[in-house]
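Hi both,

Apologies for the delay on this - the queue was longer than expected. I finally got the pyridoxal-5'-phosphate-bound model through. Below you'll find the protein sequence and the ligand SMILES exactly as submitted, and right after that the structure tokens for the full complex including the ligand.
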Amino acid sequence: MHPYIPHTNEEIRQMLQTIGVQQLDDLYKDVPLTAKDLKIPNGLDEFTVVSLLESLACENKVIEKSNIFMGAGIYAHYIPQVVKALASRPEFVTAYTPYQAEVSQGTLQALFEYQTMICELTGMEVANSSMYDGASALAEAVLMAYRINGKHEILISKAVHPEYIETTRTYASAQNLSFRQIPLDTSGKTDLGVLRESVDEETCAVVVQYPNFFGIVEDLKAIRENIKDVVLIVVAEPFSLSVLEPPATFGTDIVVGDGQPLGISMNYGGPTVGFLATLEKHVRKMPGRLIGETRDMEGNKGYVMILQTREQHIRREKATSNICTNHALMAVINAIFMSTMGPNGLREVAMRSYSNAHYLAGKLREKGFKLLFDGPFFNEFAVKFSKDYDSSWRQIFEEGVLGPLPLGWYFEEYKDCGLVCTTEVNTKQSMDLLVELLGRDVR
Amino acid sequence: MHPYIPHTNEEIRQMLQTIGVQQLDDLYKDVPLTAKDLKIPNGLDEFTVVSLLESLACENKVIEKSNIFMGAGIYAHYIPQVVKALASRPEFVTAYTPYQAEVSQGTLQALFEYQTMICELTGMEVANSSMYDGASALAEAVLMAYRINGKHEILISKAVHPEYIETTRTYASAQNLSFRQIPLDTSGKTDLGVLRESVDEETCAVVVQYPNFFGIVEDLKAIRENIKDVVLIVVAEPFSLSVLEPPATFGTDIVVGDGQPLGISMNYGGPTVGFLATLEKHVRKMPGRLIGETRDMEGNKGYVMILQTREQHIRREKATSNICTNHALMAVINAIFMSTMGPNGLREVAMRSYSNAHYLAGKLREKGFKLLFDGPFFNEFAVKFSKDYDSSWRQIFEEGVLGPLPLGWYFEEYKDCGLVCTTEVNTKQSMDLLVELLGRDVR
Amino acid sequence: MTIFERSVTGRVGFKLPKSDIEKKEFDLPSHLIRQRPLNLPEVSEPDVVRHYTELAGKNYSVDKGFYPLGSCTMKYNPKINEYTAALDGFTQIHPYQPWEFTQGALKLIFELKELLCEITGMDEMTLQPAAGAHGELTGMLIARAYHLSRKDTKRHIALVPDSAHGTNPASAAMAGFDVIELKSTEDGLVDLEELKKHLNDEVAVLMLTNPNTLGLFEKDILQIAEMVHKAGALLYYDGANLNAIMGKVRPGDIGFDIVHLNLHKTFSTPHGMGGPGSGPVGVKSFLGEFLPIPVIKKVDGKYYPDFDLPKSIGRVRSFYGNFSVLVKAYTYILMMGKDGLTHASQMAVLNANYLRTLISKFLKIASPRICMHEFVVDGSDFVKETGVKILDVAKRLLDHGVHAPTVYFPLIVHEDLMIEPTETESKDTLDKFAKILEMIVEEAKTNPELVKNAPHKTPVRRLDDVTATKKPIYRWRKTI
Amino acid sequence: MTIFERSVTGRVGFKLPKSDIEKKEFDLPSHLIRQRPLNLPEVSEPDVVRHYTELAGKNYSVDKGFYPLGSCTMKYNPKINEYTAALDGFTQIHPYQPWEFTQGALKLIFELKELLCEITGMDEMTLQPAAGAHGELTGMLIARAYHLSRKDTKRHIALVPDSAHGTNPASAAMAGFDVIELKSTEDGLVDLEELKKHLNDEVAVLMLTNPNTLGLFEKDILQIAEMVHKAGALLYYDGANLNAIMGKVRPGDIGFDIVHLNLHKTFSTPHGMGGPGSGPVGVKSFLGEFLPIPVIKKVDGKYYPDFDLPKSIGRVRSFYGNFSVLVKAYTYILMMGKDGLTHASQMAVLNANYLRTLISKFLKIASPRICMHEFVVDGSDFVKETGVKILDVAKRLLDHGVHAPTVYFPLIVHEDLMIEPTETESKDTLDKFAKILEMIVEEAKTNPELVKNAPHKTPVRRLDDVTATKKPIYRWRKTI
Ligand SMILES: Cc1ncc(COP(=O)(O)O)c(C=O)c1O
Ligand SMILES: Cc1ncc(COP(=O)(O)O)c(C=O)c1O
């Protein structure tokens, strides 16, 4: 007898009888029974499991939020309790994909509203109802660009998140797309000269990040002006979009990004959620599920999945993507979070993240550190620390501070640098502490 | 602007205009404004408050469950996650007393089922839908007995929880009821001889606890036989009722107790929930809310509050009690817990609590400690430890063990004793540890 | 379907850890070992979840919508309260732990008491009582102890206005007083003449709710206080309606000697289908020695419970009060602060007056005056005119997805609706509610049967509570 | 009403702490500073709560009732999973923290991988993929990398049965393969002749779901594996249907080289309206070197992520996978254990066969054989006879408070219902479902319009999805 499985012996007996077989194994007569003795323990009880998991959780060091200075794709932000309380409602958590729209209006409306919010943030005309994460969203955007113009070369800025680039390469490898990396100028922006010269008739898409991986705000207007009619894909961070002019304004074709900052815990990196928005003219090339508004038999407003012919259920190998299970719950968390914070809350967080970053940059400069780039940055910025920055980083971690990402992990040439991140959770006190701890390395 | 209060300045203006006044303070013209400057801080934000509360919580030492050997009214038991998950549903948490039955069937049915479960546990015919706690339930039971027979003397066993006795005295003082304490025999049971002799025509009720405060199982049959037709009130612990013959069998008139063991956290002692069950013949003398089954206009089953004429809404100063807000949510937790555990789960917990207590008693005896009483005990028992037991108790607490209650707090004559409690959460290891720690005091 | 009907013998919903202690047979006289069957449900975890999820679905709640129950202050309950109250350091502590190791809990109790004293203008306070009525009993026992301590033994009367909540007279009676009802003025206020007539040296206390249950502030309160005190009696404040006056006026400043609060109302802790609540009692310093034990004290920065109070009325319950509820109230007050609480009261009063104004266009309001946080509709003309009862109107409201206001209370207005919107409701919600109510008033004229047979869209239709009380069914039983 | 329509300019739902850093003006070219309005909702906390509570109320979910979506394994989701996954030590850690200080997380990933390898009979596994389809893509990229590593460059074909889930051909195509569909036998099984015909040195992989989407176990699986391997191709296992066979047979033991699992199905993590899920991919040891980075390794009792794998297909996503989902799956497996998982599969199969037997009395089952954990109803005769479509039947089921089974899949049966009860449903629930379905079949004969116009009792009536796609409305806009 198991608490999750209701069958009593008597019921099993009755059911077998109804089926007309003698015993349970008669139901497995087609099956070669190779797994009679799995080498895994028998089931435990809740209290033992809870204490096992609690001790595993304790083996991970939780850093106090204000002492986190690392971003690089996963950000520490405040998450209001109301977001958690609502997002954990079983009506959301234990529902499936809304295959029966009439009993899934909660899901469908929440996702429709999410799509609207993503459109508002990005300025684009249509957003899908979620991808797995920012990295796979970018990969899918590149495949989408390929479907749009059939060309093979992707120009990708060096200042796009390295894991996003790696993921995109993995996806694109099977389609024989080729990649060319566009270097940065001294301001930390994608080098416009190189970019302009790299565009040719084989160019499928240009990919830049806004603000870019090093925190520098790319000039999307200039980029668009230098790449002719090539598909422009922008990777964007959602909070910054509340104060930066949205990519749509500059003729962007596809905007992708990760929704983690909007109310999702760091979760050791997952699940987060990818967003993907585009223009109506590209919608049939777009991957992922779309929710649309409609009416019921009585004329009442309602929501349904639309344009499903793009998806794998119908077109199968010709589908715009294989994505089926997506990250709907996380998208709804984004929507609840944005509803709670409102446009002013988002802007306020963005302003504070920006102000904190500039305060901290000033303090670091005072301490004698140099910034790697001189372009305008948002809430992340690269700083030259010390030759063996990685080990000072590890040391300050033991002192309870999650310091700037060691850039040497991804860029040999920036081995002495760290990527600093601030958000609204950092305080003057925590920033001053960071400066002090890192300052020990200044000679 | 406050997140919980939706009014914008513009709306306030419009509303004032509709009302026909100039400004907000015009609404307070009858009020002497004495409180213009409260000496309390301005409102904070969620994150500041969460961290303030988290640090207060950290100033309380949480003892690992298996190391808790203290009961005396509040017990450490396992609480399945499903109980917490369901009981925290906002439909339960944010509803009021079910004044509109048609939109409160969830509350009403859950409480009706709770009443049934309490009837099953106690064997009584009718249970109300909750009291504040065990202590006030006893106090109300005594007032109820007084309403039943109009007599003035309460005979109360020395082995009833001291805080319950104190509470009952407070309530009863205003009705001029008098109390006589019945001492214990060497087995730790209420002394039958004294009891028999104490009963006279002025006796209103006899109050005993089952198992009693010292863990000894009172012989209710013998008690009933010795008190003529006096009202018998039994204070009972719910888990023990799953394996002990219920009080009803022995002619008990009122059974009360505290539901904390059934799925409610220790909560520093509150909120718990009091239960109160009686016989149909006494129902009109019973305090508290009652839920009954009925039908709607279409013949469908439904539930409503019944016999409300007993309550203060109608009879006001003649009501059976002043109780209005009760502990409905906690009663529903009890019901969810009992549903999850089932009769076998309850019995298993009771058996383990009993077995652990007897294992531990054996070990303590081996160490040279003597039990205070020689009667049959359930899962609590009093042991003679050392002259200054209170201070060894404090010392082992610092070592992470919540030891047996120092009985000297309530009984000068038992200053060297502790009241040991075990439940299913204690393990062989934790019990052996307790014996070792306490054993340091044996000379 | 009841949970009992979901039961199947042998099904389990839970599994315990392995035990390393041998099971011991019960060593008890056999007649004490259970022979009666124990018919509790046997269900799986999914069964439990579905059952209580179904029940939850049949409940109206504040999270769902407007809940304008007069006198009940059904305001929005912030989610942060649930989080803080669930912290391990608050839920996993035993009340008998050494107090040196529950300093956080004791400090919270102490500080909450200080905050509530400041808000109410009282000097001392106990957070022991579990609810408003429990607070009333505690407060009245304090009044009794006070008079007795002065050997003033003939004060056996408690004066209670006829507009009072039923718990007031009931609590007074439980505290041993004889209750005399004071007739109110037409406006529902204390009639000073009537009061004068009843004040004498047998009167122990006058209990008041202010604003009163009609939502009106007793404008003569200072005079009333003077009269009561002159007569040697105490003035008791039922804090159920504190939500109207926070940061505006303090009961302690206008002559009240004893105050109880309802943390589950004003401080949003929330209601939980009828409880648990918390009913702190504040007193002026001359009554401090009578407070129930234990009293939490602070000495040298350490907090401890004092049990040694010889004049205390004694204990009113076990342990330290409804501690988790106190955590929520404390959280709420920190979040709101002085500014927020004052704003809350102002918006509660604004909402009530706005809604009163809207409704006055089509229903009679019991009093034409500016109200505080709630007001009462006098439906007697409406009932006469249409033959539709106020109860029917209430039931019809349910069909529109809002909760009905309190009906038939206070008793001094007949066929009344008592409406308390609270500050957390928006203008929009109030506009909608007024529209719905107006529509129902219209329906009552054009299609009275529709209203009389309401509700139509609820999980069950109108329930027969008369038979339910005449032939009571107290518990579920297997039907054969 | 949408959340946008609840918005009132100036309303706030949240307050930030005071900041002690001066606000800095944006020092950016002005054309990069936002000029477009940002129309997000402005609402209070109570507004947010009521909005999403209302939406939640319009959703069907497993906690509410029976959800027999074939191929989706909508089993009960234990509450403990939500608790463990929400522990601070799991949710409050950054993926780039030093791995020495995330040993608990890495150990969990490592141990979960070991458990899943044992359950499936595979040698190595990645827990990176975010869903089943993501696992398929990963697995197919591994197959591609394998053949390329052997310079076997002409294998461009993936064989996929016509009964397969749409993600199979879609993933194969995304991984660069040309897809050829294999026609199934009448029974829905792999046709060995058909397979033989298509197997050649251009075939890279055969993708199978076993049990297949008709709920039938491929009885010739050993022979199929031999044929595929002899042809130099790999055998891929779509684990969506693993719930039928845990503790009974392991894909790794019967010739599968690559396996993906759906933790959100078989391991109950749960579905969240369509995700997040997790789609681990297991492989035989000869394919281990192709797994995506990072791979979690254990050396001297320490766990660390290895990024240095030259033959890896690369990264398939950011960071370490859907970690919180992994916590839930790990919790579930510890709770169930060997005995529980085996019992789960047996009861899943028992339930399916029991329900199949009941339904076979009034509807045609696509295959007369004993099924595994699910089965398919062939409604084509029913449709012909009554003129009522299977979609109508599905909609009518909603009126009875149960969710409809999967419809119109697999594609090889027309007008089909694909029913997967799962092991967490009781006999009682199945009996009731069969009765409801029988009643609807009856209604279709006696009152077809009732069924054709279903649903009648849902929050909305039948929705027009044709117009929705023809004139798509992608987002909310203010109507003027
Ligand atoms: C005016 C008034 N006084 C007293 C009470 C009693 O409070 P409680 O229900 O918390 O016991 C109430 C609550 O209904 C009330 O409205
Ligand atoms: C047979 C089968 N294969 C693959 C998938 C795809 O899995 P996911 O939705 O997790 O991407 C599904 C799920 O719908 C399925 O049923």
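Main takeaway for now: The first helix of chain A runs from residue 9 to 19.

I'll put the files on the shared drive as well.

H.
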